[in-house]
Amino acid sequence: MGMGVASSGRRRGKRTRRAAMAEINVTPLVDVMLVLLIIFMVTVTLPAVGVPIELPESRANPVEETPTQITISIDDAGRVYLEDEVVAVGGLPDALAAIDRNAGGELPTIVLRGDRNLDYGRVMAVMGELGRAGFTSISLVTDGSVSAP
User: Fold this and answer.
1) How far apart are CA 49 and CA 141, in angstroms?
2) Residues with Cβ < 8 Å from 73, sequence gap 6 or more?
3) How many CA atoms within 13 Å lie on the side-chain side of 71?
4) What is the 3-state secondary structure (H, E, C) of the chain?
5) What per-residue confidence (pLDDT) applies to 33?
6) Cα 125 from chain centre
């Protein structure tokens, strides 16, 4: 009988192994997915181009955005931006020549944003350079918040 007491005492002193968990803890996965969702929602709602421009007003219908379009902006001082980068004076032809063609060999669509206080001749000079570089699909961006006359 003494042996039984001693052997049971040894078992109490040993650590008991836990059974393997049959569940997967998905809480960290859900946390990461929610953070990614919030980041995606914030970046999608931000404007595509960070150049501050006061656009002219128009009642034109909105044009669909495509992933291959290139945005060219002209601010109120007449500086030209290719996406978010300033193009040096006289450097627009070289910057346009550096734009890659898509898989079909076609040039991307150009989205032209011009400040409302610009001289019409400045916008036409940029459009002339675009035409000379072979860009035939050009969309002009306006502010669509005009009420009916």
Assistant:
1) 12
2) 49, 51, 53, 80, 81, 112, 113, 114
3) 18
4) CHHHHHHHHHHHHCCCCCCCCCCCCCHHHHHHHHHHHHHHHHHHHCCCCCCCCCCCECCCCCCCCCCCCEEEEECCCCCEEECCEEECCCCHHHHHHCCCCCCCCCCCCEEEEECCCCCHHHHHHHHHHHHHCCCCCEEEECECCCCCC
5) 93
6) 28
User: In angstroms, rounded to a whole number, what is the distance separating the alpha carbons of residues 29 and 13?
Assistant: 38
Q: In 10 A of CB 45, how many CB atoms?
A: 7
Q: Which residue has the tokens 């929602």?
A: 41
d(CA 133, CA 127): 10
Q: What is the mean pLDDT of each run of 10 residues along the chain (149 residues)?
A: 49 65 82 91 65 69 72 88 88 87 79 85 89 86 58
User: Model confidence over 109-127: pLDDT tens digits?
Assistant: 888 888 888 888 888 899 9
